[in-house]
Amino acid sequence: MHTYQKLTVYFAFLSASFLAGGLVFQSYTEYSILVGWGGNLIANFFALFYAVKWRRRRQITKNVNEKGV
Question: Rounded to whole angstroms, how far apart are CA atoms 22 and 34?
Fold first, then answer.
């Protein structure tokens, strides 16, 4: 598995963890749901960033291999 793929999966699981953590701690703190959703959003953006980066790198490698360079 490529590094960018691993990071995409890691941030996808982290986003779900933020959301679940925010729901779990809602009875303890007032803003835990807001923090959970915020962390979820940021982690999803990072997952999207690394997924696009992996896709572009894969496309560049594929193009180079087709040209025979």
Answer: 7
Please state the φ and ψ torsions of residue 30, each to the nearest 5 degrees: -75, -35
- End-to-end Cα separation, the chain, in angstroms: 24
Q: What is the pLDDT of residue 69?
A: 55
Count CA within 13 A, CB hemisphere, residue 7: 14
CA distance 48 to 27: 31
Residue 22 in contact with residue 36, Cβ under 8 Å?
yes
Q: What is the residue-wise DSSP string for 26-60?
A: GGT-TTHHHHHHHHHHHHHHHHHHHHHHHHHHHHH
The tens digit of pLDDT for each residue in 1-30 reads 788 889 999 999 999 999 999 999 999 999
